[in-house]
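Progress report, Aim 2. The chain analyzed during this reporting quarter is listed below.
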Amino acid sequence: MTLTTFALVRHGQTDWNAERRLQGSTDIPLNDVGRGQARDAAAVLSPYEWDAVVSSPLSRAAETADLIAEGLGLTVSRRVPELTERSFGPAEGMQAGPELDALRIPGGFKGAESEDEAASRGLAALEALAEEFSGQRLLVVTHGTLLRVSLSRAIGETLPSVDNAALNLAHHHAVDGWQLEYFNGEPVLAATAN
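Predicted structure tokens for the chain:
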């Protein structure tokens, strides 16, 4: 029975996060608050042993991963393109309001990756990592929406939004599927899905 443990961390804050703009696949860098959140995340993660660190290639996740890895005395193994945030298409850069509402369709936005597509891509990426790093402890830095929809599908429950740089601890077992132990830094009742 091989158990693979994942720390799934959303990148630190960006200016667009602070302005409540949809980022999606637009490559927006961390701001100073986000860099501080990444350093704080390293402190939260330091009591655990980690075998490897991977991240999305977008700069906000890559820099968060680099700062966390540095704080843990590790290096980032690689950037995983499949961990890029869900594309919101023409809605990227927008804030809530009539212009954004005009782009809404069931399951997302016109010209965007659907929630279902993002969940399939994200969960497939995590399961590929579970196979590659079987029995190890892996730190993954990625994006809020991708994490939310992927974890929701993995455990069969709808999760709320993921906080910047908070600890989400999940375990993958080849037979029993996924179990979520911490979400947004808080313990959760275990849920599993096959």
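The chain is about 35% helix and 20% strand. The first helix runs from residue 15 to 18. These observations will guide the mutagenesis work planned for the next reporting period.
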